[in-house]
Amino acid sequence: MMTQYIQKGHYEATELDGEWIILNTDQYTITKLNDVGGHCWSLLNEMQTAASLTKSLLVKFSTIENEHQVKKDIEDFLANLVQCGLIEYVD
What is the total count of domains within the chain? Predict the structure, then answer.
């Protein structure tokens, strides 16, 4: 079974000029995401896997051609969000 992820809490998220700002009021941190990261963040309000996020990105941003690189980038992105305390693993 693939690892699933979901947003850890109900954090304030705002989009400004193609960038997303996530306010983690528990840890008093601000995380900035680009448009691709913001798209992933919005999907993470429900359980997602790296594969499901990769598929969504390949559909939404049809200019992306290298699926293997996209999946690796998504895995790194998810690891960073876990480290920031914004998402968690789901069993």
Answer: 1
